[in-house]
Amino acid sequence: MSDQLLPVSTGRRAGRVVWDVLRTRPVATAVTLLSAVAAAASGLVAPAVLGRLVDAVDRQEGSIGPFLVALLAAALLTAVLTGVSVVLMARLGETVLARLRERVVDRALHLPSATLDRVRGGDLLSRVADDVAKVAEAVTSGLPQVVGAGLTVLLTLLGLGALDWRLALAGLVALPLYVAALRWYLPRSGPRYAAERVAMGERSQALVSSVQGADTVHAYADEARHRAVVDDRSARSLSITLDVFRLYTDFGWRTNRAEYVGLAAVLAVGFVLVRADTVTVGAVTTAALLFHRLFGPLGLLLFTFDDIQSAGASLVRMVGVADLPDVPPAARARSTTRPAVELRGIRHSYGGPAVLDDVDLVLAPGEHTALVGASGAGKTTLAGVLAGALEPSAGRVLLDGAPVEDLRAHVGLVSQEVHVFAGTLADDVRLACPDATDAEVTAALETVGAGWAVAMGLGTLVGEGGRELTAPQAQQLALARLVLADPPVAVLDEATAEAGSAGARDLEESADAAVRGRTTLVVAHRLSQAARADRVVVLAAGRVVEQGTHDELVAAGGGYARLWAAWSARG
Amino acid sequence: MNGHPTTATGLLRRALHRHPRQLGAATLLLSLHQACEALVPVAIGVTIDRAVSTGSVPALLASLGATAVLFVVLSQAYRFGARHVVAGWFTETHQLRVEVAARVLDPHGLRGTPPTGELLSIATNDAERVGRVVEAASLVVAGTTALAVSAVGLLTISVPLGIGVLLGAPLLVGLLQLLSPWLTRRTATQQEDVARTAGLATDLVRGTRVLRGIGAEDAATERYRRTSAAALASTLRAAGAVGTYRGATVLGSGLFLLAVAGVAGALALDGAMTVGQLVTVVGLAQFLAEPVGLLGFAGQKVAEARASAARVVGVLAAEPLHPTGVPPLPGPGRLELPALGFHVEPGRTTGVVTTDPADAEALVALLGGRRAALPGELLLDGQDVAGLDPAAVRARVLVEPHAVVLFEGTLRTAVDPAGAADEAALRTSLTAAGAADLADLELAVADRGRSLSGGQRQRVGLARALLRGPDVLVLHDPTTAVDAVTEGEIAAGLARLRAGRTTVLVTSSPALLGRCDRVVVLREGAVVAEGPHHELAGRPDYAAAVLR
User: Fold this and answer.
1) What CATH number is given to the structural domain containing A511?
2) What global pTM score does this model have?
3) Which of A98, A132, A485 shows the shortest C-beta gap to B198?
4) Which residues are A520's β-sheet partners?
């Protein structure tokens, strides 16, 4: 269970993936790009017109009329082009993003079991949540602005060049200063922003932990310590936030210096050129106004640089997952058959000592077998192997005497892990069989004794943000999903463990109903469940040590008999 | 009862009063910054007029020097002003967050505690929005200053033009602001749809193993694809609104520029204005959008802060769950619920069996103070708990619920949160709780005990309760996640460590009930039977509830 990370792609590969999508829409891509360039270019018309106006004033000739017409045309043209380019860019960017996020989620849900066990849970979650959100944010609000600003800067420099190449050169003097400011800022800001995010995460965690555990905090009069932890983590994140902002304002000071140098250079060079009669006062005015107008878009580019960088990092992480091989949809077997299941010479270790050591086990067709043993005996591992969730280090699983290509297609597993999917009750259960009718969903719920769910209404929102279900209710939903999926073989791994003792009994009945008619292995926690099974298998230190019916094992007076005596403890 | 403001306005006012130094410095410096920003177009105009048009070198040097000073003052004023703003803003946020946490953790509890997610949002987002009132206040002053400086500049050049610009700029910003609620509405739906997509992805990935168990990966992928497509459609609809808004903004400022340049240009062509003045007027007209926008922005932030302040006050000034009371007098630890005819004998171990699990839950909630006791409902050593101090009652009556909550730390801090016990005592209670296998006291424990198995969590919680050694210990289903052998050990350990002290076991485990001095059976809010386990075992309803 080492902590491995999912693959991360390269910038080149990410660019390639985006390009491949864009290539399938050549017209849309070209039109979008053109509209953005045209919008930025039309924004330069107004300062040019104002420059001409200044020249006219300088010469004291001409009338205001033509200038007004030109300014009006510029305003209308820029407005329309800006609006159109924003819409087109969203169409293109958002579509590419949607396709990419769908691919990421598809691959994440189809990760090979072995990979799923090895990767850190948080890594997978952050790929589908944080990374997607970050790239989406960049596409939705960042992309049009950054592209617009970038084009404006580029075209403005070209515009300056068109006025006079020496004025453009003067403006370019600021460039090294901007680059220096950025090179000063980025290496310092990255780690600080990362530290800030970590500190905020820890702060939220301290809060959530104290709030959720408030009853326990009160019970142990532990209020002062928890308050101190919240105070401490909040103060820490405050100090990082202030530190980050200090850096940000220092960066601002550096960019202001670059702005001044550029503006002063344009004015000084303009002064010289006007004195030499090479350019007009109006041209210098235009140049100064153009340069002044650059402060906004340049600042935007500079201050979103780390957002762009981090969106890039997220994109690379998304593409890393999206590039995983595609898994074709699997065909599921239904319980029209009741196969015999045979485990032959199963051994398994998680890299250390053997957890399962040469286990042979046969489940007869339709037979219910209970697996009993102390914690650490290997019960869950064996259940995982039988369910096809775990590839054993050695040994084979046979169905009706023959190996099968995809064991998981035949076996349904309900484990200790309880998850209520956010959405309606019907949606939750229907995940097991998307075509199921409401009547079939209701029938599945009633089979497992979840009449409360039917009474509540199939449309009730449950899971995160919906109505909170108790642990036994959530497990009943899992059993209802099993009924609807209708696999020929079922594995229940301590499906009743988290419920209180009273709830556990009801759940046992639900579980019995859910596996009726299937070849079944139940990892039994409560011995009452073992007592009702057709056969009991006792596992100790990875080996089968006893097996037989409940009555046989109790009569045999071995380890199981002692467990049973302790469990039933009559008198 | 506590010293917090009780209204949203009160909370905002306190936020401003709590940071006088930061607020004062920020207001001064940001006003200076805005004034300097207003002067940049003036400086360009003056440079063109005095130097570029005349060709005077000393004038050029003087202009560029003055502009340099302007830039230095401008950027330093912003640099330090903004730092003061952020310091005030986030210090206030921090203080509010700590206050909210303290209020939630107050031993008296609070009536109607919001759900965790909402509380988290109040302690982070709402606290941050309330703190932002510090920024909004300094921006109002700074924006007004910039308006005043621009007004003086414009009116000096041309009175009618100045008045026109001063009326036109706010009008333009106001008109654009009229569009913004429409835009917010259009984008809000889109943001919700996108958030739903993100939520669905997280939710499905969290449940991956469950999905795999029943082969539902394809169905889940398909569901995500549909939601993602719907979100895309909604985003594209919103993009139309965003595009329109951006276009309107560009058009509005373009038309404004047209009007100003038209009037100023006509005046200049008539010789009533110099070239430099024309440049200044045009520059100022463009700049004016900034302070006007700042004022609108500040107004919006104050409105947001007010809404958030109401939510923060809702927590800070919430009614306590338990009224203040007197500490209980010492006693042997006898509990009574007269209405149920139920009592717990001091110094003995009492088992409680309920026919309905909800009754057990309700009893434990009352004993643990998760629900306030009504007058006369619950007596501790003959004293009405409703009139007692809740923290002092908890110091005598400890309830460890079925769902054990452990906090981040080590095994040592999990078992001994107070840090008061020696190692021998720790080991004794771990052994009695059947957790002797957890030998490493420095073992890291993740939040909510996630790094431990369900059985380990339960046993560690039990060891924690035993170590505390309260006068009255109430345990609810303490052994549901442990195996039968360990359960027997725990039953023996409990009997050993709790000998002579009051213990209540709300459970249906025969292994635990068999060791109780007396078992009480509750059905429909009343005691229906009591006696030792082996005597009750003959009753069919008892057997149905316990022995199966």
Assistant:
1) 3.40.50.300
2) 0.80
3) A132
4) A368, A490
